[in-house]
Specification:
- By secondary structure, this protein is an alpha/beta fold.
- The chain has nine helices and five strands.
- Helix 1 (14-25) crosses helix 9 (169-179), helix 2 packs across helix 3 (45-56) and helix 6 (118-126) packs across helix 7.
- The longest helix is centred in the last third of the chain and has 15 residues, at 135-149.
- It is globular, with a radius of gyration of 16 Å.
- The mean pLDDT is 95.
- The structure holds adenosine monophosphate.
- Adenosine monophosphate binds next to helix 2 and helix 3.
- It is found in: Cytoplasm.
- Belongs to the adenylate kinase family.
- Residues 31-60 are annotated as: NMP.
- Its main location: cytoplasm.
Amino acid sequence: MTRLVLVGPPGAGKGTQAGTLSDKLGVPHISTGDLFRAHIGNKTELGLSVQSILDEGKLVPDEVTNQMVRERLAEADARDGFILDGFPRNIAQAEVLGAILAESGQKLDAVVEFQIDEDVVVARLLGRGRTDDNEEVIRHRQHIYRSETEPLLNFYRDIVVTVDAVGEVGEVTNRVLNALDK
Ligand code: AMP
């Protein structure tokens, strides 16, 4: 159970949980949002091209995102597993991920759904202070989640495990590990 995708609305705590799970399971945490923010921070060509997209809470074009993920998954540390956080975010990305993994005879073990009310996440995000965390952008990101990302739960229905994301960090981690039977 070491090839995992975390799915849940922005603000559900996926990043925090991914970090803890990465330590516990010994596989890298791969966050496409973090990868984009690192590019932006380093002012790379990719970073400069995606900055305004992140600031507006829109999705970076699939070709750009998929290529970045393909390169990251090809690194040695991801060979025996990974925790993907923020990718895939739509069905087209999920299909590309399936194809990338199939090229090396791999497949996902589970998709962890973080279940949480929208009101709770909006309040959390407003307290986080990231440049893409003002109310209008937050609403837009929630809208994209519902329309583009949530359908992944049906796409992956055979391997989805659902976890209540409300609670202390450690408590939620334990729920995930129990759900994965770790
Ligand atoms: P996150 O840190 O996961 O909330 O992602 C922050 C921002 O990065 C998103 O609002 C998008 O602009 C961009 N992003 C992250 N992951 C993806 C993805 N899989 N596809 C497209 N854009 C993404």
